[in-house]
Known about the structure:
globular; Rossmann fold; alpha/beta; two-stranded antiparallel ribbon; 8 helices
Amino acid sequence: MLKSKIKLLVVSAALVASASLSAGTITVFVHGKSGSNYNSTGTTDISTDGKSSYWGANANTVSGTKYFVGYDGTSDPRTYGAARAQTNLTTVLVNQCKGVDTCKIVCHSAGCYATEYFLSNLGGTASSKGFKISGVTALAAASGGSELANSLNAITFGYSGNAMDKALIVTTARSSFSHNNTAGVTVAHVPGYKGMAGASAILPGEDDYAVAYHSSCGYSTVGGLSKCQSTITQSEGVWPFNSNVSYAQFTGHTRAPSVPVEGLYKNHGELPADGWR
């Protein structure tokens, strides 16, 4: 009997060791707005016409196995269907992140919108639904929308802009789902403040020429912010009518640990190189 118990323990230990050795980390890349269709749920980041890639060499900043959630970059990131973000994101996460491997999600711009929308609508925590997701690195997140989309909509009286543009209207992005519900997964933000004349005149506070800090830092309220931290109180208005206004990040959102409170001096197109954070 004793020998049988010892043998059983040895076999159990071997199985645990084997599982540990075989388990790894998969990085899932989710792209943002684009004029191309990167329809993919595999390990290749390339447009359907084979002429361009979204992440390019930036994906190489992350080692290990990579999967790319590709979709029609002109479509609404909240939608399902052929070449749609939610369908392809679901496919990758179900197929790759429910086994022995743990997944880390790296999203950029509207790809973070798609990712947060997915997590918010899981109907429970990611782990309770069988997903092994260690966290989300959100590069220049557009989950809170962009005033540039507001301007386009206003200037053209709603007649111009594709489905992605309309989804990025600030009120639409912020009311589409509960940003406080991240399914128990931490969303770590990486914002940039390398703006550009013209765009920066429209975007409040610091910006990367496409999204302002209220979005790229995951703040629960729209405002002109210059720092990325859990809470901030600043004086707003013209003296003597100014007053203190407080802002806080959504629950489950934080600044990436390697990023200073001021953010990074990078623009929207440069931030995809920071997927390693």
